[in-house]
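Final report, results section. Input specification for complex C-07:
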Amino acid sequence: MTDATRNPVFDKYRRHLGLISMVVPVLAFFLIFHYVPMVGLVIAFKDYVMSDGVFGSAWAGLDNFARLFGSEDFPRAVGNTLTISILRLSVGFFFPVILALMLNEVRQMGYKRSIQTLTYLPHFFSWVILGGIFLMIFGGAGPVNAAVKLFGGKPITFLTNDAWFITILIATGIWQGAGWGAIIYLASLSGISPSLYEAATIDGANRWQQTLHITLPCLVPTMITLFILSLGGILTAGFDQIYNMYNFQVYDVADIVDTYVLRRMMALDLGLATAAGMFKGVVGLVLVVGANFFAKKISKGEQGVW
Amino acid sequence: MKLTTGEKLFNAANLFILAIVGLLCLYPFLYTLSISLSTATEASREGFHLYPKDVSLVSYRMVLSNPHIVTGYVNTLTRTIVGTILTLMMTCVAAYPLSRREMPHRSLITFIIVFTMLFNGGLVPGYLLIKKLGLINTVWSLILPILITAFNVIIVKNFFQSLPESIIESARIDGAGEWTILFKLYIPLSKPVLATVALWTAVAHWNAWFDALLYITDDKRQVLQTFLQRIVIESSTQMMELGITDTSVVQFTGETIKAATIIVTILPIICVYPFVQKYFVKGIMLGGVKG
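Structure output:
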């Protein structure tokens, strides 16, 4: 019989039994609720029949992916998702930065806090709630159309017109997320050493020059981190918001990968739905890892999320 | 410090624009509140509805006497309270060993957890798992999948790492085990970050709807957000699918009931928001963006 205490590897585990007893249930959780579903992705390569189960169903090779890209709806959904995401990234990305810079210039602390509190209020409500509110506000007899009429315009069908719908989607998305997004930038701003500004003032730099040459460069690392992370969601495009605001009249522009996956799943075409979901997940992973690699490369290891 | 005229002008413009931004954030909620308190005729009047001109509580009476709303409230409260307590405990249990340098295979375990932020099995395998586990139509289908999230673990782990190691040494001399150190020393010292995680989790549970849409088919177990969705969104979409975009032809009682349901759903968050909002923000500052 070998004495367990003499084996150095065994000994290491024995000394940390307390810590290990914490890690075991946690790892079990992640294995069951995250890694088992990853194994479940084999459904994408199967002709899945519910009664045969995941492993009993016949292999189908890449048939599901061929059907996916051969269909009319999926390429359209990918295109729509990319359009919406790129619009969000290009238009929406700078709103939190600008908001943070503006808040940073406010010297009246009470005022600053009140505005901040108001701007991140929308972050705390689901899109079921916000979608419901915006359907009323942009509806035929809502206040936005009242304003349009007030200025002599004709009522606009905001929610059923393709271009207007996308515009509203982006705008309300910014409305919901900018205040919360600004918090991270404000945190970075509070970390900037005041001595930098003092030195700049002595050198005769005005506030605009200080913002341009001190404040903004200090925000760049945070911006890069957030940009890399948001790339991972490029095929996500905000399912919660779209599902709660769209209708069949704007499917041509608003049907995204996630709504497509849900619809195929509801139609019990599980192989196809899994393949579509897997495509989205792999693209997101590749983009985040790639962008991180790229950011590290060009900054010689200084930037990047990890 | 003396301000130049340009700076004074800039400051005034800045404050003014920010005031408009603040009002824009508030207005949709004000509008909903105003509609919910209006009579049907007043609600159908075109305008901005900053406040209800013709007050009526009928829609609230109807919403509160709807058995679905009451059931939804109870179910949402249950998932929020049970879910938040369990998440807090398990997040601490996950974060503590990862915060300790002597933990064997620490970086591998951290990777296993963090990787779940970058990739997941997606909708169908997730659904089949919940089904296989027999959790459909139970509150556990709403609590377990989001019990521990990598993001929360990292935030709490970072905070634990900022605590002085000397407290572990002295506790160990007194013969305390790891579980005792975690629950008797670390958790009481980590109240600010735990308050943040608790609030994030509670809000996430209160607002969650998609999991309930997938996993709950029994109306007796359904959550508030799903009932709200049926009342608010489905009726609007149906109107549009019927080609009725001019909502004024539709019974406006519908609008006031929608608005009242929304207000009833967001009321708990609105009530606690002014008191707890500083904790929401604190976590971001404490945990940092970087893992």
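The CA atoms of residues 222 and 248 of chain A lie 39 Å apart. The two ends of chain A are 46 Å apart (CA to CA). This concludes the modelling results for the funded period.
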